[in-house]
């Protein structure tokens, strides 16, 4: 449990960070944003929970321990379990459509980027279908575009596909969080859609990763959970950066991260993380 003074300091710090990121209006007359009290945007609702020092729980590829990962079933189940957010992975097909799949190749060895949408398994949803299935949660859209993968696209075309899908929907921009291990990809997202929230995904060399996140103007950092501790979280917060870790499934580690002030935990077991959160608040 946390003392009142600790909670107050954390509230004040998070309030400043979230306001800077555009999740809360700077003043009652700031009409760029919908006041939280009158919105049905799930992310803004969950943002108020975070401001009360509650860690956001993000279902990694949906409820991937209870249903096949990155499927409609996994996304629906994550919402049923009460996950605050859902993370999913976007890749492009040969005919230039955004679909949801973690690996560059299908289980049968075919490269998604060399396969027509109509030839993919029925279990692979397109981005639009996936976002529909996530209704009730915010969505962390990870754009897969790593330089080491066979479908790496230096033209960053997936950014335009994601932007087109976001812009055709009525949801407030705050419902979407765009992340990538490829810094150029999220830099391009910020250039094309400045209002979008962007997060830099990293593994290892936490100091350099945090510095790069800040230098490129991204307000959210997504490190591996092993790369952070309470001190590093505080240092990120001190420069206005929120920290969501991936992918932590151990209950004791989840609870420690929450005690350390982590903003979000991406996990394959959102039900366990949610139970741990209830026990600490």
Can you characterise this structure?
This protein has a single domain (4-280), classed as Phosphatidylinositol (PI) phosphodiesterase (TIM Barrel, Alpha-Beta Barrel), CATH 3.20.20. The protein has ten helices and nine strands. It has 281 residues and is α/β, with parallel strands linked by helices. Residues 1-8 and 21-52 have low confidence and may be disordered. Helix 5 packs across helix 6. 37% of the residues lie in helices and 16% in strands.
Strand sequence of the main sheet, in spatial order?
1-2-4-5-6-7-8-9
Strand-and-helix sequence, N→C? HHEHEEHEHEHEHEHEHEH
Q: What are the low-pLDDT stretches, counting only 5+ consecutive residues below 50? A: 1-8, 21-52
Separation of the first and last Cα atoms: 7 Å
Structural class: alpha/beta
| Number of helices, counting only DSSP H or I runs of 4 residues or more | 10
Strand content: 15-25%
Annotated CATH topology: TIM Barrel
């Amino acid at each position: 449990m946390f003392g009142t003074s600790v909670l107050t300091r954390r509230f004040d710090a998070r309030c400043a960070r979230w306001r800077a990121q555009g999740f809360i209006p700077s003043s009652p007359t700031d009409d760029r944003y919908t006041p939280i009290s009158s919105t049905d945007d799930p992310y803004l609702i969950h943002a108020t929970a975070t401001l009360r020092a509650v860690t956001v729980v993000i279902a990694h590829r949906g409820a991937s321990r209870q249903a096949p990962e990155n499927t409609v079933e996994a996304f629906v189940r994550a919402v049923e379990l009460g996950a605050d957010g859902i993370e999913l992975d976007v890749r492009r097909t040969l005919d230039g459509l955004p679909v949801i799949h973690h690996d560059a190749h299908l289980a049968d060895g075919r490269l998604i980027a060399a396969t027509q949408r109509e030839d993919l398994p029925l279990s692979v949803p397109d981005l639009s279908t996936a976002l529909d299935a996530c209704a009730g949660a915010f969505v962390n859209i990870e754009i897969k575009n790593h330089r080491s993968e066979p479908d790496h696209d230096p033209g960053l075309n997936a950014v335009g596909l994601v932007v087109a899908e976001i812009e055709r929907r009525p949801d407030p921009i705050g419902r979407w969080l765009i992340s990538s291990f490829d810094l150029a990809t999220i830099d391009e997202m910020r250039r094309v859609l400045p209002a979008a929230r962007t997060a830099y995904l990293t593994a290892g060399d936490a100091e350099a990763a945090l510095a790069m996140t800040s230098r490129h103007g991204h307000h959210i950092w997504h490190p591996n959970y092993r790369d952070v501790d309470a001190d590093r979280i505080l240092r990120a917060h001190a420069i206005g950066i929120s920290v969501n870790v991936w992918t932590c499934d151990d209950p004791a580690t989840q609870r420690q991260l929450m005690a350390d002030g982590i903003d979000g935990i991406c996990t394959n077991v959102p039900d366990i993380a949610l139970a741990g959160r209830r026990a600490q608040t």
